[in-house]
Amino acid sequence: MDACICQLPLTATSSATSATAYDCANEKRPGVTAKVQTPDESVKFLEKLFKFRQDISVIGIAGPGDPMCDADKTLATFEKCKSHFPNALLCLSTNGLALPEHVDEIVRLGVSHVTVTVNAVTPDVGSKGLFVGEV
């Protein structure tokens, strides 16, 4: 599945190559932005991108940093993306910051994929299981 990773930075990724601009110096995927964008800038960026790339089916919001650090803007971006691109899947990549407080809103917005990065000091600590409840 091809994706657009939006960095709130907002990003769009796809497995197909094309002549569309790669906006980020550190990424070689179409749609990865070079700067943090507002919700409205993200929609404008995606509108331009989708004119050239019809193979993108996922809009994702990721770092730098945790997008839930500014949950209001992240959730507003998802809201606008859902409204403008109703057929796109929505994805969030987070360290879990503010996730419990916003899980109902994330579900309401139709974010179908959430990646939570879990770090541990050693593999042994990480293997002990850090989750409570259903995963």
Could you walk me through the main structural features you see in this protein, from its secondary elements to its overall organization?
α1 (39-52) packs parallel to α2. This protein is elongated. It has helices at residues 39-52, 71-84, 99-108, 123-127, and strands at 3-7, 10-11, 58-62, 89-94, 111-116. Strands 1, 2, 3, 4 and 5 form a five-stranded mixed beta sheet that branches. α3 (99-108) links the parallel β4 (89-94) and β5. Helix content is 32%, strand content 18%. It contains four helices and five strands. With 135 residues, it is α/β, with parallel strands linked by helices. Residues 1-26 have low confidence and may be disordered.
Please give a quick description of this structure.
With 135 residues, this protein is of the alpha/beta class. It is built from four helices and five strands; from the N terminus they run E-E-H-E-H-E-H-E-H.
Question: Terminal Cα separation, in Å?
Answer: 22 Å
Order of helices and strands: EEHEHEHEH
Radius of gyration in whole Å, from Cα? 15 Å
Mean pLDDT: 77
Cα shape: elongated
Name the quaternary structure.
Answer: single chain
Q: Ranges with pLDDT <50 over ≥5 residues? A: 1-26
Question: What proportion of the residues is helical, as a percent range?
Answer: 25-40%
How would you classify the helix and strand content by structural class?
Answer: alpha/beta
Summarize the SSE layout with pairings:
Blueprint: E1 3-7, E2 10-11, H1 39-52, E3 58-62, H2 71-84, E4 89-94, H3 99-108, E5 111-116, H4 123-127
Parallel strand pairs: 1-3, 3-4, 4-5
Antiparallel strand pairs: 2-3
Helix pairs in contact: 1-2
